[in-house]
Design a protein that fits this description.
The complex is a heterodimer of chains A (182) and B (295).
Chain A lengths: L10 H5 L2 H11 L8 H4 L4 H13 L17 E8 L5 E2 L1 H4 L4 H18 L9 H16 L6 H5 L4 E11 L2 E12 L1
Antiparallel strand pairs in A: 1-2, 1-3, 3-4
Chain B lengths: L16 H20 L24 H20 L3 H19 L10 H20 L3 H31 L10 H15 L7 H12 L1 H16 L8 H22 L4 H12 L1 H20 L1
Helix pairs in contact in B: 1-2, 1-10, 2-3, 3-4, 4-5, 5-8, 5-10, 6-7, 7-8, 9-10, 10-11
The chains are: A alpha+beta (182), B mainly alpha (295).
């Protein structure tokens, strides 16, 4: 196994940040500045800087802090669709969006509704869920696959929300229609 | 100090030319999957560059066909080493454009970010090649190294999010993960319109309720793997161990939740496990044992 040390491939010139600071100075036309030398000797500095960068920039594609499964608690919700008669509709067959992604759209709409209604904190009300659900079902209706538009025409579209709850006693679930279009 | 902690430093691996060629070759597959994937023609909640420009034209059928042809030309150039900076830059632009549009629906999908970042990182390395005076081989080595750094940073960032950004007591809340298992399985079943979940998905939450400490240990291993992903930069052996560990994590998540991290797995196999090198290494060892046995 051949390993190239830190002095191989010009890595040392990266670690003293010389070229980065020089390039930044040229771009910004500011007086040249240097980062402290000890910073260059930190192990895994490139990873550390990238992690900080990703955390600061946030969700701006292609950058992301990758916050998968961070903010979960004792409640979760799932969305599914039916036609006006209650017949379940497969997202894969009829829509260009899947259930997981639609849930995120719903959450974004819910956040927007609360902002528009001036609600800053506290539990989410049924009215807020209903308004966000109605906006989400309108969005879902716009995401029908080309072949599904005729099949679904005139049958209506309902969006259902299953809320799963977990506490020390166990699991429970409740369900309601949160949006409907004719 | 030359002990083992001191040797835990970022190391640039001098990969052979054939290894780096195969890495580029295998990387083209997930890029192709990203290029052919359908995109919406609306961007109601812009993200990234969609804040500054309208990308909905990318959703047009004729544009999608053109993008495939452009990708084909770039793939040949990238693979054979002709204009790698331009070729990888154009491929990064395609992935970023389509990914941005997909993520501008109001829902963040973490399928394409890492791949787009890796290709973007490579294009930046090749872009810097002339300025830094690297030879073609050195630029390739750097491109591979930065790909590894970006992959490591993404996993460490995921771990940092769990612990530092959202909740230092993440591990205490882990039993609630049972609810996430139920949720993702229900979502998958909603996609096929059945709303029927697997036996494993029904039994696992009960197991978590009965054994919360074991569940914390189970998911805690995943957190340690994420936070320790930077060790893959120490050397080939570490990269292999970290790669296999993270692939195991994705495999476990897929079995439990039905969520596949396809792009992440491809990148781990290409850059960390480095399957072609591993195959050669194992082949050489097997031949040595074979020769010794014959004597």
């Amino acid at each position: 196994m051949r390993r190239k040390g830190l002095n191989g491939y010009g890595l040392e010139s990266f670690y003293d940040f010389k070229f980065v600071t020089e390039d930044l100075s040229k771009i910004s036309r500011c007086k040249r500045w240097r980062l402290p030398k000890w910073l260059g000797s930190l192990p895994f500095l490139s990873t550390l800087l990238l992690v900080i960068f990703l955390q600061v920039v946030g969700e701006q594609f292609p950058f992301s802090p990758f916050p998968m499964y961070t903010g979960f608690g004792g409640e979760a919700s799932v969305l599914y669709a039916t036609d006006g008669k209650g017949e379940k509709l497969s997202f894969g067959t009829y829509f260009r969006i899947r259930s997981a992604k639609l849930s995120k759209v719903f959450n974004t709409e819910l956040k927007r509704v609360r902002e528009e209604w001036g609600v800053k904190r506290g539990r989410v009300s049924e009215e807020e869920v209903g308004e966000a659900g109605q906006r989400t079902v309108i969005f879902l209706a716009s995401q029908k696959k080309d072949g599904a538009v005729e099949k679904l025409e005139g049958h209506g579209l309902r969006l259902h929300r299953i809320t799963l709850l977990m506490d020390e006693k166990g699991f429970s679930r409740r369900e309601r229609v949160i949006g409907e279009v004719p | 100090m030359r002990g083992w902690p001191a040797s835990w430093r970022e190391t640039v691996i001098e990969h052979a030319g054939w290894e780096m060629f195969l890495m580029r070759f295998f990387l083209l597959w997930p890029i192709w999957l990203g290029v052919v994937g359908s995109v919406p023609d609306v961007q109601p909640y812009p993200t990234g560059i969609a804040h500054f420009m309208d990308l909905t034209w990318l959703g047009g059928a004729s544009v999608q066909m053109g993008v495939k042809w452009i990708f084909g030309c770039c793939a040949v150039g990238y693979l054979l080493g002709w204009w790698k900076g331009v070729a990888s830059g154009v491929m990064a632009a395609i992935l970023i454009g389509k990914g941005t549009l997909l993520n501008s629906l109001g829902a963040t999908d973490h399928t394409g970010q890492l791949l787009a970042l890796v290709v973007l990182g490579q294009s930046m390395v090749y872009g810097f090649q002339g300025k830094r005076g690297w030879t073609d081989n050195q630029a390739q080595v750097w491109a591979v190294h930065w790909s590894k750094v970006i992959i490591a940073a993404s996993y460490v960032s995921a771990g940092v999010c769990k612990l530092l950004v959202h909740d230092p007591l993440w591990i205490v809340r882990v039993p609630y993960m049972a609810l996430q298992v139920m949720k993702t399985n229900l979502q998958n079943s909603a996609n096929d319109g059945s709303l029927v979940i697997s036996r494993l998905a029904m039994e696992f939450p009960d197991w978590v309720m009965e054994h919360p400490q074991l569940a914390r240990g189970f998911f805690g291993v995943g957190l340690v793997l994420e936070l320790g992903a930077f060790l893959a930069l120490v050397g080939r052996g570490w990269a292999l161990m970290v790669g296999v560990g993270l692939l195991g994590l994705h495999f476990g998540v897929e079995i439990l939740m039905g969520l596949n991290f396809r792009n992440h797995s491809y990148l781990l196999v290409i850059f960390y496990v480095n399957a072609p090198w591993l195959g050669k290494w194992l082949g050489v060892r097997v031949m040595e044992v074979w020769k010794g046995w014959r004597r």
